[in-house]
Design a protein that fits this description.
mainly alpha, 2 domains, 4 helices, 76% helix, 0% strand, elongated
Length: 163
Amino acid sequence: MKPFPKWLVLTSSLAAGLTGVVYWWMDHMMAPLDEWAVINHPLQPWVLKAHIISAPLLVFAVGLITVDHIWKHFRSPATRARRSGAAAMWAVAPMVLSGYLVQAVTELRWLTVLGWLHVIAGLLFTLGLTAHQLAVVRSRGDRRAIRRQEAPTGPLRTGVPGP
């Protein structure tokens, strides 16, 4: 994959993932400062805004690599890092769709279902992408080790008589 799309996918995933986890923590795990508070932490609205701004960058980045990376490797016979990449790929659609619908739905039951779907799909995407990166790095190391083993150990044979 080219460096810029890879950088964009990884940084936007990191930004959306971190802001999503921090927002979830603030919303579900923290107690409000007082009994009438609408938010649980003063930075909670800012973290939500950062998540909402970083998420479209992630959607753009995934779209950017769809044809040249995702579809190409999905259709190829090579299986290196395919399961982890497929796990991340299949989590994208429910993550994105639920993320947009959470902002539009007002009925509490649907909002709760969509919120949990978004959290689960986001975690699956993040875990899949992390596993995918680890598998790619591991396979690169394996290929380098194989090349080192196959490299000639003695003097190079060029066909030219030596001194």
